[in-house]
Amino acid sequence: MPKLTIKSLCKEALIFSEIESRHAEPLLYGITDGKAVGTYLEQKFRGYLSDRYQFNLGNSAIGIDFPQLNVDIKVTSINQPQSSCPFKSARQKIYGLGYSLLIFIYQKFDNTTNGTSTLNILHTIFVNKDQTADFQTTSGILSILANKGNKDDIMAFLYERNLPVDEIGIEKLAAEIIENPPKQGYLTISNALQWRLQYRRVIAYAGKENGVISIHQTN
User: Fold this and answer.
1) At what angle do helices 135-146 and 167-179 cross, to 10 degrees?
2) In the chain, what are the domain boundaries?
3) Which among 53, 55, 106, 115 is most buried, taking Cβ atoms within 10 Å?
């Protein structure tokens, strides 16, 4: 079997989304737990890929689904398109998560007549790791830099954003930003013990910005 690549991952995600959107699944009937639905879809997609490609599965220690590709799968309902991910450092809000995301956004329908459920995949989106930072944080930083902002301006802005980092960390981040400005991110990342990633802006920008690729969309 061929080795899995980013290109083949996206190609198969499109095919899988179209197949799954027509599939009636009795195991999901009546299930309202988004985590259970997400686990079902992730495992089914990995099984689908394992029949066609060679790849190493991720584990909880590694933290992402496809470590060789540096890609993690996220599954979320269109009702509240968001998920969580491990917090590593405040830098992730500015420079991205450090890996790309393959996001399946579904709408669930239960058929009371035959006792099955269908996951209509409304959007399948690939977000390159360079675009996985927080939208407002990166746009604010880039605006300050475009306005000839200096280290003090960046530090003041970072304090206003309430980043989970101490004073020394803020100063180091500001110095790094001056030397290495971030790229525009498209996630909304909320501070928590785990990052909470929100995807409404990703849906809006998919296919319109480099690094935010619309793989599948249901009109």
Assistant:
1) 60
2) 6-81+99-130+192-217, 136-179
3) 106
Amino acid at 103: I
Distances (CA, A) of 186 to 151, 208, 213: 24, 11, 12
Q: Which amino acid is at 147?
A: N
Distance CA 15, CA 136 (A): 33
What is the amino acid identity at position 191? N
- pTM (predicted TM-score): 0.94
Q: Quick one: DSSP state of residue 66?
A: B
Beta bridge partners of 83: 197
Q: What is the mean pLDDT of each run of 10 residues along the chain (219 residues)?
A: 96 97 94 93 95 81 84 96 91 96 97 95 97 97 97 96 91 97 96 86 95 90
**Assigned fold of 6-81+99-130+192-217:** PvuII Endonuclease; Chain A (3.40.210)
Cβ atoms within 10 Å, residue 201: 17
